[in-house]
Amino acid sequence: MATLQAIKYSRGKLLVLDQLRLPHEHHYDEVSTAEDAFDCIRSMRVRGAPAIAIVAALAHAVELYNGDCKATTPEETIAYIESRLEFLKESRPTAVDLSNAISLLTLAARASKREGLAHPAAKDAILNSYIEAAETILAKDLENNTLIGSFGAAWLQQQYGATPSRQLSVLTHCNTGSLATSGHGTALGIIRTLHAQSLLRHAYCTETRPYNQGSRLTSFELVFENIPATLIADSMAGALFAQHRARMNIGAVVVGADRVVRNGDTANKIGTYALAVLARHHGIKFVVAAPTTSIDLDTETGAGIRIEERRAEELTQISGAVVAADGTVDTTRTAKVAIADQRIAVWNPAFDVTPYDLIDAIVTERGAVVKGPDGKFDFSLVLPERW
Ligand code: MRU
């Protein structure tokens, strides 16, 4: 049965959809420990900045709920939680959502330490507080995405005066949908909302090499939702804009983010920067959709972002379901195929940084942030307490 739910959680149990098997197979892994979560995130069975943070937070909640913490004092309990979260933080370095979630969870655990409360009640209070905070992250993410969808659709509608009789087409990159989040999605959430409001003419999604999140996941979500959509290879975006922009009223490139830093520079899936340059050349708006949990005010510019580099095999090999001679897809048989000389040297950065000056709007759950008269982004409107 096809599903768009990447994360299924009930207290004490976490199931995560294996995205490496999509779209051919729908298999959930049980993720019960921090080690399970680390492996699931590192191997990209779950991916997407918000989903990574949620799975890490909830996996630790599950192990705490199941009695994994043997600490006998409040101090030991907090130290244990912090050490497990530090371990999880290293699973993937570029997305900031996980670090932001860890700060929040650590604060929640520390805040519940009550002077004068004896063991085991003191320990239970800390564990409960952690578990509740992790569950809130899950619930909040869905709420945030719905708001991002509305704010993003409203901003685009305003820019172009889009109406059901003058609809807008949009291109997106990578996967930012239900599979990358707790549901609805960020950039893909804007596309969903535009579609629901009859303002979307057509969605274009890129293949997103080398990991093919666009062809494997986004096209799956678009087909699932019956949204009119076309898949292109990453290298076709320029030709698409040059040839079809006017006819299809292509108004925006809408992408997600793994980390938006203080000046607005944005790390996102490799290929995003090239799309921003193309969008600027063609007079197409470039919009980043990101919850405030993807904003990192401690890093001044994109130069400070650590970019994950991944294995050579992601470029030199590809895997998928076997296609029979008559064109039918045998979803029960998958194969890995070599598509390059296996000895070639490979550079495989998973993300790139789009400079803020190429970005027209950063849409958060608290509204769209645009540049002021000084040409700079000011996040104080959406992050007053952290500014
Ligand atoms: O390597 P991935 O698949 O985790 O990369 C995902 C992206 O770059 C997304 O655009 C980003 O995480 C935002 S997901 C809402």
Q: Any overview of this molecule?
A:
By secondary structure, the protein is α/β, with parallel strands linked by helices. The chain is built from ten helices and 16 strands. The longest helix is centred in the middle third of the chain and has 40 residues, at 121-160. It starts with 6 loop residues before the first strand and ends in a 17-residue tail after the last strand. The strands form four sheets. A seven-stranded mixed β-sheet has the order 6-5-4-7-10-15-16, with helices on both faces. Residues 47-50, 95, 174, 176, 180-181, 186, 213, 256-258, 268-269, 350 line the site of 5-S-methyl-1-O-phosphono-5-thio-D-ribulose. 5-S-methyl-1-O-phosphono-5-thio-D-ribulose (MRU) is lined by residues 47-50, 95, 174, 176, 180-181, 186, 213, 256-258, 268-269, 350.
Amino- and carboxy-terminal Cα gap: 45 Å
| Structural class by SSE content | alpha/beta
pLDDT averaged over residues: 95
Rg on CA atoms, Å:
21 Å
Main location: cytoplasm
Keywords: Amino-acid biosynthesis, Cytoplasm, Initiation factor, Isomerase, Methionine biosynthesis, Nucleus, Protein biosynthesis
EC number: 5.3.1.23
InterPro entries: IF-2B-related (IPR000649), IF-M1Pi (IPR005251), IF_2B-like_C (IPR042529), Initiation_fac_2B_a/b/d (IPR011559), M1Pi_N (IPR027363), NagB/RpiA_transferase-like (IPR037171)
